[in-house]
Structure formats: structure tokens, C-alpha cells
Amino acid sequence: MIDDRTRPAPTAVQHLLDRAVAEQGYPGMSAALREGERLRFGSAGAADLHSGRTWRPEDQFRIGSITKTFTATVVLQLAAERRLSLDDTVDRWLPGLVRGNGHDGTEITIRHLLAQTSGIFGYTLDQDWLDRFWSPNLLEHRFEKVAPEELVRIAMAHPAEFRPGQGWGYSNTNFVLAALIIERVTGASYAQAIEHRIARPLKLANTYAPGYRTGFHGPHIRAYSRLSVQDPQAPTHDMTELSTSWSFGAGDIVSTAGELTAFLAALLGGRLLKPAQLAEMLTMCRVPDGSWLDGYEYGLGLSSFTLPGGTTVYGHGGATIGTWSYLYGSRDGGKVMVQAVNGDWGPLFPLFTEGLDTAFSSGGRLP
User: Fold this and answer.
1) What is the pLDDT of residues 149-166, one digit of tens each?
2) Cα separation of 185 and 8, whole Å?
3) Does residue 364 belong to any structural domain of this protein?
């Protein structure tokens, strides 16, 4: 979706984008701010280092764990339709899949999955998985297709983190399972559910789950990665084309800056979920101290935190190979901001928080 009323980003936001590229060495960075139908967009650096072209609001990119908010939205829609209950056990829909090492699908509910309170081990912490997909070895495995059931089996090989409902722990496995439940309940693919229930109603023509597709079906940025090598002089690799089947339902969706802000505005504004289900999504628990999300609260596939200027925002972040992004908005969806970089290194949380604080904490409307 391209908004005909797109205007340049406010000066303070543009300054932050310029500084991020100049001081932190990202190939490029973009930010989009939406108030109602009004979209402001800014970028710095390059969307493509080879051509040097700049980012555009309609450029597609991989959104990483912002996918979780899409997955949770579809599950909550199904709950509103009484096709499932958040208190259904995982075993009801995926019998026998969650078993072993303290994992028991007869005790874990769908609510536990969406709230990150299941205790299920996160397969992305498995050392063999990290060696294949989050290291320079990815160059050999970038087009590898991984079935979601295989991701669950990786998790089951490790001990559960805690008993269901007795703790909080961020686990990508939870959302792989949630996406599999969507498929079981609807009889459609996860990609079809995202298209028919979110993208099509909101007219998001460039938002989709790619499945095993390794490229894009429209204009897109190039994604650059150091493949987790913690050295400023490490080589940078163009990782634009790759399979993200290893993040099924948890981090694989493709979208654009303009469409992401439209999605979150619609979600928080009550246009995708009924009031009861939106209230469930927004029922937050504080993330335990010492977590990498220290200071955040987490609901059902949606997080919140309070900016230094005092404004509380709601949304999700997303980190994937070559692209990191951050999508947050006001409680009513009246103001939404997404920021993205096409590099996957550096201290991004402070940068993204500064961008949000710059846009939100004045309390006024965008100039």
C-alpha cells in the first residue's frame, strides 16, 4: 500500500536516521509514522548498496518476530469465532507433537503459547540450529527447507524451561505451534490464513508469509548480515535471498513500512479483533528482571514498554538475518511508528527506543 499523502519524516526523526547510518555503519535505515491516513516516511543510507538507491515506503522486507503479532491476531480471531478456545490444550489440536523432557502438550494451552508462558524450550537456542542458521555456516544452508514439525522436534530434545504458567520465557517454538494450530483449525495453510484474514481485508498487497519462497514478489530492500560475527571488521554478506522456513509462524512474514503501520493501527484500533479478544491480547505481564526484554511487558503476541518521555507504546520488534525492525504504537492505534535497518549488528534497542521517544513523547500530532 502506498499512501498518496506520504510526507517527509519530521526533522528530528530524519536526523536520527542520518546519524544511525553515519555513526553505526548500517547500510540504510527507514522510519514511517502514521496518524490516521497520514503517513510520514524518512530514510538514510541505501536500500541497495550496489545501486545506491534509497528506501521507499513500499519496499518489502522480512519483519522477523513482528510476525508473532500477526500469528496471535489470527488465533484470537479464531477464538472469537469459537473455532478454538485459548484454554484448549496443544494436544487437542496437535496430538503427540509436544512430548518429552518435561514437555507435555496435555498441560500446555494455546494461551500459554501466545503469552510465552508455556515453558517450551526455544529451538533457536539449540546449538546445532545456531551453527546452521545463525553463523557463517548459513552461507551453506541459506536455501534449506525446514518443516515446522522438525523445529518442534529440536525443542523437544531439550528440557522444558518451567512448568506451564509458572514462569515466562521467550520461545519461538510457541509460535511455530500456534501457526500449526491455525492450519489444523482452518484447514488452510498459514500463508493463506494471513492473506485472507489480515492482508486482504486491510488491502495490504505486499504483506505475506513466503512459505518456502526464497525471494520477494515485488520491490524490496537488500538485506546485509555479518552472520553473528562480533567484529566490526567482519565481512558483510548480501543475504536477501534465503529460506526463512526455520522461522515459520514466528518470524517469516514479509511486509513494508507503510503496510506495517497500517496493520498495527488497525489492530490497536479494534478493526481486526473484537473487544474481548483485543483485551486478552493487551493483558500484559511484566517480563522478569534480568531478561533480555527487561523493562517490557508481554501480552498475547504483543509487548509494551514505557518510553523515557513517559509514553507507553504497544507492538513488537523483529530480528532476522539482514533486517531488524521495530513496530510500536499508541494504545488506540492513533499514532504508529515502524523503524527498520537492513543490517543485523550493533546496539539496536537504544537506537529504536530513541526513535520512538523522538516521535511519541512530545504528545502532539506530527508536524
Assistant:
1) 999 999 999 999 999 999
2) 43
3) no
